[in-house]
Write a structure and sequence with these properties.
The protein is α/β, with parallel strands linked by helices and 364 residues long. It has 2 domains: 4-266, Alpha-Beta Barrel (TIM Barrel); 270-364, no CATH class. It is 40% helix and 21% strand. The chain has 13 helices and 16 strands. It has an 8-stranded parallel β-sheet with strand order 4-14-13-12-11-10-6-5. It has a 3-stranded antiparallel β-sheet with strand order 1-2-3. Helix 4 (127-137) crosses helix 5 (155-175), helix 5 runs parallel beside helix 6 (193-205) and helix 12 (325-351) crosses helix 13. The two termini are 38 Å apart.
């Protein structure tokens, strides 16, 4: 495909290096996207994101259509100019909100009834409307509307979700008019290998620019998650970028790359950071614990971010204890920096034929 090219492959795993070309730049895979649901990552500015070497983010098309609304974003010439971000933007269709009782009111074969979190009004999102919203926003890569089931649902319900996702996928393709954007399809199937295979085959044959594996990392075991990735990957065209939605912990990222995934997004670094969870090269820890109140160590002795250069664990522990928002910003910045630094190391290791060494060292 013109927009995606494979540059290198690891000899001992399915890890690979690719190059994804979009309207706002070319990015090397595998890469990680911080979540900027409402056109902003939580407690971190666009300028700070760029400092962390972030080259792509993901926003939520449905949420942005509610506030500030499409008319306002159109007035600015699209989402990039509205939020002053000149790098790559993905937008999600809103299907993921099906997992939230706060949003979901019900579904039909034609679409999803959502409750607005702002005024409780009901909005009916069809596949066509999801694409129209994202076409208007002007993101570089957009997602088809999928039917996202809870992983605990029985097989009959998951099968229904797969069937609905496939029907909506074809409607999304037909509705897509902004050809500068790359439209990704999404597979479903829960933790059932036969349904996963069925969905991977179907979405792969539709004319999507890339394929996302959806409905995982939502409560199932890691073993099951990677099993479903493994049954899906062989059925996807090699020249299409592969996107595992919702994965963002360091261990999961390395393992998913080893299983052949190219693209990731997650609010894990910022969401867990806001609860005091510090990501480091040697594992995670809780900065709110009393043991850190006298510590003069940085958050991570191996990290080169400005937070680790300037501030101690004791100081950031104090900020959390007094509920000072600056602490949330500092930890969010550090956690995203660490993830982006890890992704750089992963790409370098694949190029140099040292990925398995990095994987084993990190696992230890």
């Amino acid at each position: 495909m013109e927009h995606f090219q494979i540059l290198a492959k690891d000899k001992k795993s399915k890890a690979r290096i690719g190059k994804l070309k979009t309207a706002h730049g070319t990015i090397e895979t595998p890469f990680f996207m911080p979540v900027a649901t409402n056109a902003a990552a939580r407690y971190i500015t666009q300028e700070q994101l760029q400092e962390t070497k972030t080259e792509a983010i993901i926003c939520n098309g449905f949420m942005l259509s509610l506030k500030p609304g499409l008319e306002i974003i159109k007035e600015f010439g699209g989402i990039h100019k509205f939020m002053n971000w000149d790098k790559i933007i993905f937008t999600d269709s809103g299907g993921f909100q099906m997992l939230s009782e706060r949003f979901l009111k019900g579904t039909t074969e034609h679409g999803i009834h959502f409750r607005s979190p702002f005024d409780a009004r009901t909005h009916f999102v069809t596949p066509e409307k999801a694409i129209q919203i994202q076409n208007a926003l002007g993101a570089d890569c957009i997602m088809a509307l999928d039917f996202v089931p809870e992983y605990r649902e029985d097989k009959a319900y998951i099968a229904k979700a797969v069937k609905q996702t496939h029907a909506w996928a074809e409607k999304c393709i037909a509705a897509h008019t902004n050809k500068k954007q790359l439209l990704f399809g999404i597979t479903q199937g829960g933790i059932y290998p036969d349904l996963r295979k069925q969905s991977a085959k179907f979405i792969n044959k539709v004319d999507f620019a890339g394929v996302a594996i959806g409905g995982l990392c939502i409560g199932e075991s890691k073993e099951k998650m990677f099993q479903m990735v493994d049954v899906s990957i062989p059925l996807l065209d090699e020249e299409k970028p592969r996107y595992l939605m919702g994965v963002g912990s360091p261990r999961d990222l390395i393992e998913a790359v080893a299983h052949g995934i190219d693209i990731f997004d997650s609010c894990f670094p910022t969401r867990t950071g806001r609860h005091g969870n510090i990501l480091t090269t040697r594992g995670n820890y809780d900065i709110t614990k009393a043991k850190w109140q006298y510590s003069k160590l940085p958050l991570d002795e191996q990290c080169a971010c400005f937070v680790c250069k300037k501030y101690t664990r004791a100081y950031i522990h104090h900020l959390f204890k007094v509920e000072e928002a600056t602490g949330l910003m500092l930890v969010s910045y550090h956690n995203i920096w660490l993830i982006q630094d890890l992704m750089q190391k992963i790409r370098k290791a694949i190029k140099e034929g040292k990925f398995e060494k990095l994987r084993k060292e990190f696992s230890r």
